[in-house]
Each structure stands twice: as C-alpha cells, then as structure tokens.
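Support reply, case 0932

Customer input (verbatim):
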Amino acid sequence: RIGEFLFTSGQIALDPKTMVMMNGEIEEETERVLNNLQEILKADSLSLAHVVKTTVYLTDLGEFSRMNQVYEKFFNKTKPARACVQVVALPKGAKVEIDAIAHQ
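Our regenerated output:
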C-alpha cells in the first residue's frame, strides 16, 4: 500500500488454503483469480468496487471473451480501467493472471 492506493501482485488460480494450482478451463481459473483478488482487498478493508485499474495476462487472447464473461460478473457495477495482453507463459501453467490497483 502506498497512501490511498493498494497495489496487488498478479494473481493466478492458486487455492489459497493449499497453494495448489487449479489448472482448469479459462472460466474456472478466472473465477479463482478474482476470488483471490477479493480476499486480498478484503484483508485491507477494500472491495472490488475500489479497484481503479487491472491488468489481465492471458496465454491465449482467443480466450478473451470467455475470460471476460467471468470478469464482468465480478465487475458488474464498476468498470475499472483495464489492459489485457497475451504472454508466452505464466507461472505454474496458468492461463490467466490478473493484478489490480485499488484506491481507498
């Protein structure tokens, strides 16, 4: 946290209890990633409504629309600025990674 801003590290679909990677369909991984982000925000008394910017990293931009369907369920009221890029690979074979900047 820097002042009123919280910067999260990129989140992949790790189960926070077991730290085991959930390698599933893009929808399942996106949901796990966004649930992980929610928990990080909650620990700092914030919510997804406080997020002002996200960066989404995909290993296949062809899966963007499927990822976006899940993303929109989490950000249905607020629409933070977003960048989305395709990358060659992500840790642990993840299909998606998302980081966020939140403002209190």
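We compared this against your earlier run and they match. Two observations from our side: The beta strands are 5-7, 51-58, 81-86, 96-103. Residues 26-43 form the longest helix (18 residues). Please reopen the case if you see a mismatch on your end.
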